[in-house]
Design a protein that fits this description.
mainly alpha, Formate dehydrogenase/DMSO reductase fold, 12 helices
C-alpha cells in the first residue's frame, strides 16, 4: 500500500474560507487616519495661502483633535497586532513595496508634527495657558522652534497627508487574495472620504457662517466625487472576473446590502448632501445633523469594507 500526502492551503483557521483577523480596531484606525490627514491638509493649505484668521475652525480649532485621533488610531493598530510589545519591529526596516511600512513610517512622522503644529497657536487660543504651571518651561523653546519652521511643516504636510489618506485604502487593495479589496479605486475613495469627514469636522468647529458655508460647498463637492467613485467601484467589480462579480454580491443583494445602501449611501452620503444643499439655499438646517451623519458614514464605510472584504475569497 502506497501512502500519499496531500498538502493544502484550505481550511486554515482564521484564513480560509475567510479571513477573520481584522476587527473593529482596524476600521477605527483607518477612519481616524483619513480624518486626521484631511484636517491637516486643510489647515496646511490655509496657512500657505494666508487664510488662517478667516477660517479659524479649519486652521486652528479642528487640528487640535488630530494628535488625539492619531494616538487613538495607533493604539487601536497596536492592540490589533496581537503582540503589542513587538510593534517596534515595524520601524526596524523600510520596505518601499509594503503599504504597511509606508503607513507606519508616515504615521511616525505626522504624529509628532501634528503636535508641533498645534503648539504654534495653542497659547493664542488659550491666552491663560502657561507652561510653568505644568513645570515644563522647556515647551517655550519647542513652541518657538515650531513657529519658526511652521511654513516648512505646512509644505511637508501636503505630500505626507495625501500619502496618509490614500494609504488607508491602498493597505486593503494590496491584498490580491481578497477580491473585494483588490481594486485600485479604494485608495482615491478612502482619501476623498477622509477629506469629506474632515470637512464635516471643520463645519462642527467653524466659528462663522462664512466658514461653515465654504466648507459645506467643499463637502458637497467631495460627497459628489465620493458617490461617483463608489459607482465606479461597483461597475468595476461587475466588469471584472468571476471572483470580483461574486465578491460584489455581498454588497449588492448580500449580507451587507443594508449597511452599504442604507447606512453608507443613503444616511452617510445622500441625506447629508441634500441637507447641506438646503442649508446653502437658505433653509434652516442644524449643521450638526449632516456633519454627524457624514462622520458616521465614514466610519461605517471602513467597517463595511474591512468586514465584507475578509469574507470574500479567491475561487478555485
Amino acid at each position: 500500500m502506497n501512502e500519499e500526502v496531500f498538502i493544502s492551503g484550505r481550511n486554515i483557521p482564521h484564513i480560509d474560507p475567510h479571513l477573520t483577523l481584522w476587527e473593529f480596531p482596524i476600521s477605527l484606525y483607518l477612519f481616524l487616519g483619513g480624518l486626521a490627514a484631511g484636517i491637516l491638509l486643510f489647515s496646511a493649505i490655509l496657512h500657505l495661502i494666508n487664510k488662517e484668521d478667516e477660517f479659524k475652525g479649519a486652521s486652528k480649532w479642528a487640528p487640535m483633535i488630530v494628535p488625539f485621533a492619531l494616538a487613538i488610531g495607533l493604539l487601536a493598530l497596536i492592540y490589533d497586532l496581537g503582540n503589542p510589545l513587538y510593534s517596534w519591529r515595524l520601524y526596524t526596516t523600510i520596505r518601499i513595496e509594503s503599504p504597511m511600512s509606508w503607513g507606519a513610517w508616515v504615521l511616525l512622522i505626522v504624529t509628532p508634527m501634528s503636535m508641533l503644529w498645534v503648539m504654534t497657536y495653542v497659547r493664542e487660543l488659550f491666552p491663560k495657558l502657561k507652561y510653568e504651571t505644568f513645570k515644563m518651561p522647556f515647551l517655550y523653546k519647542i513652541e518657538a522652534f515650531a513657529i519658526k519652521y511652521k511654513k516648512y511643516m505646512a509644505l511637508a504636510f501636503l505630500p505626507l497627508t495625501v500619502i496618509l489618506g490614500i494609504y488607508t485604502g491602498i493597505l486593503l487593495s494590496a491584498f490580491n487574495a481578497r477580491p473585494l479589496w483588490n481594486n485600485a479605486i479604494l485608495g482615491p475613495l478612502f482619501f476623498v472620504s477622509g477629506l469629506s469627514t474632515a470637512a464635516a469636522t471643520v463645519i462642527l468647529f467653524a466659528k462663522s457662517a462664512h466658514e461653515r458655508h465654504w466648507f459645506s460647498k467643499i463637502d458637497i463637492l467631495l460627497i459628489v466625487i465620493e458617490i461617483g467613485l463608489i459607482i465606479h467601484l461597483i461597475m468595476g467589480y461587475y466588469a471584472g472576473n468571476e471572483m470580483q462579480i461574486e465578491a460584489v454580491k455581498i454588497l449588492v443583494g448580500g449580507d451587507f446590502t443594508t449597511m452599504f445602501f442604507g447606512f453608507l449611501v443613503v444616511l452617510g452620503l445622500l441625506v447629508p448632501l441634500i441637507l447641506e444643499i438646503f442649508e446653502l439655499a437658505g433653509f434652516k438646517v442644524p449643521v450638526i445633523i449632516p456633519a454627524i451623519l457624514i462622520l458616521i458614514g465614514g466610519l461605517v464605510f471602513r467597517v463595511l469594507m474591512v468586514e465584507a472584504g475578509q469574507i470574500t475569497r479567491v475561487l478555485y
